[in-house]
């Protein structure tokens, strides 16, 4: 019979250890390869979905830009109309405002001159100035009546 020496036992242990280590590394590499395949598929799926989304987003941005340009054109038109209306208002006020005030004043003066003073109208009451205000005589009397009691 052949006796096994210590060196041979050590060699067998090292061989078994290397076999176990290689088995673990093979399993780890197989799982890593599977993970890389899944990651590659996931990235491809995300890319397939992201490209249409980016195209839609780009179209939305272009549409928004077009709408902004339209709003800008409308705003400038409104500003022009506003300035034209302001100029027209100023022109109308300066053209008709003064003469209308004069016609109204003339009409009032004519009515006062023709109508004169009515017989039954009370004579003008005396007004007193109290703290910078003019108070009619009748109101002044009501105020002072309560204080005299």
Q: How would you sum up this structure, described in words?
A:
This protein is mainly alpha-helical. The protein contains 2 helices and 2 strands. The chain has helices at 6-115, 137-148, and strands spanning 127-130, 133-136. It has a two-stranded antiparallel sheet with strand order 1-2. Strand 1 (127-130) and strand 2 (133-136) form a beta hairpin. The protein starts with 5 loop residues before the first helix and ends with a helix.
In short:
The protein has 149 residues and is mainly α. Helices cover 82% and strands 5% of the residues.
Number of helical elements: 2
**Radius of gyration over alpha carbons?**
52 Å
**Beta strands, count:** 2
Tell me roughly what share of residues is in helical segments.
Answer: over 70%
What percentage of amino acids are in beta strands? 5-15%
Quote the average pLDDT. Answer: 82
Q: Biggest sheet, open or closed, and with what strands and sense?
A: 2 strands, antiparallel
End-to-end separation in angstroms reads 151 Å
Low-confidence blocks of residues: none
Overall, the morphology is rod-shaped
Protein traits:
mainly alpha, two-stranded antiparallel sheet, 82% helix
SSE blueprint and pairings:
Elements: H1 6-115, E1 127-130, E2 133-136, H2 137-148
Antiparallel strand pairs: 1-2
